Amino acid sequence: MEPTKALVREPGDTYTSCISSHPQHHTVDLNKARAQHARYCDVLADLGLEVIRVPRDDQHPDACFVEDNAVVLGDKALICRMAKESRRGEQPGVAAVLEEYVKIKWAEAPATIEGGDVVHLGDRLISGVTERTNLEGVSQLRDWLGVRVDTIDDPGIMHLKSYVTSLGGGRVIATKTYARHPALEGLEVLVIPEEEEYAADTLTVGDTVLMPAGYPRSHEMVRAAGYEVIPMDVGEIEKCDGALTCLSILF
Fold first, then answer.
1. Which of 19, 46, 71, 209 has the fewest beta carbons under 10 Å from its own?
2. Which residues are known catalytic residues?
3. What is the C-alpha separation between 206 and 224, in angstroms, rounded?
4. Are 111 and 140 in contact (CB under 8 A)?
5. What domains does the chain contain, in order, with CATH numbers?
6. Which residue blocks in 52-151 are alpha helix, DSSP H?
7. What's the Cα-to-Cα distance from 2 to each of 92, 174, 180, rounded to whole Å?
């Protein structure tokens, strides 16, 4: 089922203090980040999604990365338990909004799970087991949503969606490292050029794919597969270790 709604939250006043290992993190411009986020929301609305805005959170620097707060499937959502304690106050605002639309359940310790690790494939999910998501988190996700969840285990990465995202219709885009992983067996895999790996984090709405600007070979590959590509400037988001999928929860 195609998503009809996008839940978003604007970067707060503390955004420049977000958790990030990006070498240009010290140059983040909050006004530019907000402008990029506003453009992102406008594009989602233009694509026909109802954009639902969670109140801004000025206490938690990473709060605009709403994707990590919850995983939604059908009429249920698992409210995630983030790995970083500094992020664990983000969820209530997201949960309060989601509860208006779906049934929610909170992940419980010792689980850690973040939505940035979870790829939706229609009849199943793929979850990374990473720095931010553990096996107990995957187990609680599977039990609450009642869905098959395959895993890609790599504790050296932050989030799986930096490397694998769904284009819909049994097709994914992935970096070379994960392109032949057993969890992707049976899917058509478009492999991102090695020098353009940031472009693996894509957001698909129908036949339109949002991709970060500045990766022409990846854009052309996706266009050749039959999609419309909308390049998005997310430079200030990238500096905070964020990407396109991080900024919304589609459901």
1. 46
2. 159, 246
3. 16
4. yes
5. 5-250 (3.75.10.10)
6. 91-98, 135-145
7. 26, 21, 27
